[in-house]
Amino acid sequence: MVDPDFTGTQVVKGTSENSCGKKWDLSGVILQSYLSKNLGIFPEWESRLQTAMDGCYNMIHFTPLQGGVRR
């Protein structure tokens, strides 16, 4: 579920261990990359990301979002 209150970024330190402390093979990563600015407004992201879940991707990459200039 998308958290509508999330306004920051989250950085996760990379490791080759899962939460149980077991090693995992990086060649097993199935990655879907999204161009964040094309996902629309934040409350709509969950439905658009459903394809990654349905496609059994185990990692999602989002391109960075940058704040614009208000005029």
Describe this structure in words.
- This is Glycogen debranching enzyme glucanotransferase domain-containing protein.
- Residues 25-66 form the Glycogen debranching enzyme glucanotransferase domain.
- It comes from Schistosoma mekongi.
- This protein has 1 helix and 2 strands; from the N terminus they run E-H-E.
- The chain is mostly loops and 71 residues long.
- It has a domain at 27-62.
- It has a two-stranded parallel sheet with strand order 1-2.
- The longest helix has 10 residues, at 45-54.
- The mean pLDDT is 77.
Give a quick set of tags describing it.
AGL_glucanoTrfase; 71 residues; Glycogen debranching enzyme glucanotransferase domain-containing protein; single chain
Global mean pLDDT: 77
Helix share bin: 10-25%
Global morphology = extended
Measured between the Cα atoms of the first and last residue, the distance is: 33 Å
- Care to count the β-strands? 2
Spatial strand order of the main sheet:
1-2
Strand content: 5-15%
Number of separate helices: 1
Radius of gyration: 15 Å
InterPro entries: AGL_glucanoTrfase
Organism: Schistosoma mekongi (Parasitic worm)
Protein name: Glycogen debranching enzyme glucanotransferase domain-containing protein
